[in-house]
Amino acid sequence: MRPTAAAVARAASSAAQTPADDGALIVLRGVGKDYPLARGWRRWRLLWSAWRRQPPRGALFTALDDINLTVWRGQSLGVIGANGAGKSTLLKLIAGVARPSRGEVQRHGRVAALLELGAGFHPEYSGRDNALLACALQGLSAAQARAALPQIVAFADIGAHIDLPLKTYSSGMVVRLGFAVLTALQPDLLITDEVLAVGDEAFQKKCMAWMERYLADGGTLLLVSHGMYHVQKLCRHALWLHQGRVQAYGDALSITRDYLAWHERRAAASTAQDESAALHAAGSAAPYRVLRWWVNGQSPQAPLRLATGDTLTISGVVQASDGARPHVAVGWARADGSPLYGVVSDMEGVALQRLDAQHHGFALRFEALPLLPGDYELRLHAMDAQALRLFDQVQLRVQVRANTRELGCVRLPHSWLALPPAGMADPAIGWPGWPACDVTAVQRSWPRQP
Amino acid sequence: MNQDLRSGVRHRLKCVRGAALDFWAQRHLVRALLWRQWQQRYAGSALGGLWALLQPLAQLALYALVFQWIFQVRLPQAGANQPYVLWLALGLWPWMALQEALVRGAGAVVAHAAWVQKVAFDSAWLVVAAVAAAFALHALGHAVVLALLMAGGAALAPHLLWQWPLTWLALLAVALGTALWLAAAQVYVRDIEPLLPQVLPLVLYASPVLYPLALAPEPLQAVLVFNPLTGLLEPLRAAALGWGPGWSAAQAAGALALCAGWAALGWWGFHRLAPDFEDAL
């Protein structure tokens, strides 16, 4: 098979650049980036300081600070963080578009940055012209660009539109063309910013498949995404930026979960705070309260660390100052406060055991807890004798960790069944049998995808 | 000391060689950008590229109408077949190229801010393409206009054949160097672009484009001699109209070297500022 032009370009460029001995493609040491906020006459001073290669004086906005990062050959790294955390600035520094204000950025090998799909595409020119110029900007020679063009046209798959001006394209088609250009570049390091957030589902799948193959072929990927699914699927490692600094770095699965939990907590913080504060305020004066409680026989310490399938025993003492027999409610919620499961002793006909005139004890056990990895909250409430009103609330943050990629928050009991040989019918497992079923009828009755 | 000097020179040579290799590697980009400039001007118009020929012809017709038939301007030294329009055309088209190259070149980086902020490439090529496109169009127009005037019976000396391309080349280098400085400054201080249309007419009247140097008052002439346009346009006219010797080989080489040096200085200054463009865009 003849090597494609892009593959040749990649080989040539990696030969031309001296790769680091230890296989590091990108090394960032103590990197920080400030943006000057100068306006009006101060911009003349900015020009002067740039000319003298001095850091700009005056008001600055620090987009990144103290970043240490090494991207190894063959690594796939997801960069996550809230808006304004410095993700795009980090990519600009790595791509070489911007110069760091502090520290140093080392690059070994050919870096192709798609900081924005279709950046610099001009609406008046045809898709073909725009693709050729984009290739030229990324450093492909004329011959390489011409050789790559059929590949680009095939990947974009926008038919005769390729020769029409870009202004006639739908936004999805522009994205298709932009990604198609990217596929032709075949760089050592691929930098993409929110590339997968756009385009229709079929094209997203195509992009994912391409990136997976690129990674399997030994490519290195730096992916910025707000879609944790993409980060989990494509990246082995993740970097969490928060306000220009590294909040966490490590295994993509655990970092993305921490990030999601942090988001849920932040969203819940505003609403839950006043609710629980009200209950707490009422708690000390309330006739019913959870006096003490234990988890697996020990005083609860936040956060409680569990693994999926662990067994958990909760016990405690409820105080009822009026001498009535109180009830207790136990609930699980996600970190954002949305309820998962709740049960009240009254529902199951359980009476708390009287310890003395005012105190009642209880203990309950969750066998093989089916919670999936994530952050949760365990809550206890003291209730009145009729189990009508909540009085006190105590809660505990729970972190569930496990090595699983199942989605959602609970593991539903399930099993995969084996089909009979040759797909014969088996009523016992609800399998109608392959040869028996009418393929066309099945297809016709299939609900049409929107 | 000697060692230092030698290694310094070697380093410089390496830099120059690197820039040349760079240019060769990026020629495709320059060509693509030039093609885009061409499209920007003429794509979408009914006559298309024909405008590149029609525009200078229309201008020539206008000047002929105004100066030859209405005002009947004549220069004192002019020969029988050397109307004022011929003299004017020799200087006006180079000036139009310079003016347009400076205006478009100065805004080239800012106009393509989306690329500069998103793609790692040498933004100097944006300026090069803007300047080169302006020069290519006006040089073509100049050639067409001169050919037409000659066909109409104007007397032009054969010296023009070798001095014309050299003058244009030198002027291109001057424009490139200046445009690179302006474009880099424009990124930081956006005052350059509105300032330029105010300054350029001043330069026009301080150059022997519309009137010959001899018509200017004595003390002013001494100043105008230092205008690089005087040194480029006057010898071209002298050679073309047979009024003087024009450039000698040494003069041509010296002028070209000076202009190329100015372009190299602009290239260096631009790249000194370029790493921080993203901060200011």
Assign the structural class of chain B, choosing from mainly alpha, mainly beta, alpha/beta, alpha+beta, or little secondary structure. Answer: mainly alpha
The count of β-strands of chain B is: 0
Low-confidence stretches of chain A: 1-20, 442-450
Number of helices, where a helix is a run of at least 4 consecutive DSSP H or I residues of chain A: 10
Secondary-structure element order of chain A, N to C:
HEHEEHEEHHHEHEHEEHEEEEEEEEEH
What proportion strand of chain A?
25-35%
- Enumerate the strands of the largest sheet of chain A in spatial order, edge to edge or round the barrel: 5-6-7-3-8-9
Largest interface: A-B, 36 and 34 residues
List low-pLDDT spans of chain B.
none
Keywords:
heterodimer; A: 450 residues; six-stranded mixed β-sheet; 30% helix; globular; disordered N terminus; B: 281 residues; mainly alpha
Compose a concise summary of this entry.
By secondary structure, chain A is α/β, with parallel strands linked by helices. Chain A has 10 helices and 18 strands. The N terminus and C terminus of chain A are likely disordered.
Structure report:
The complex is a heterodimer of chains A (450) and B (281). In chain A, 30% of the residues lie in helices and 29% in strands. Chain A has 450 residues and is an alpha/beta fold. In chain A, the strands form four sheets. Chain A has a six-stranded mixed β-sheet with strand order 5-6-7-3-8-9, sandwiched between helices. The two termini of chain A are 40 Å apart. The model of chain A is unreliable at 1-20 and 442-450 (pLDDT under 50). The model of chain B has no long low-confidence stretch (mean pLDDT 84). Classes of the chains: A alpha/beta (450), B mainly alpha (281). Chain A binds chain B through residues 35-36, 43-44, 46-47, 50-51, 53, 56, 92, 95-99, 111, 113, 115-116, 119-120, 122, 124-125, 129, 132-133, 136-142, 145, and chain B through 25-29, 31-33, 35-36, 39-40, 43-44, 112, 114-121, 185, 188-190, 272-273, 275-276, 278-280.
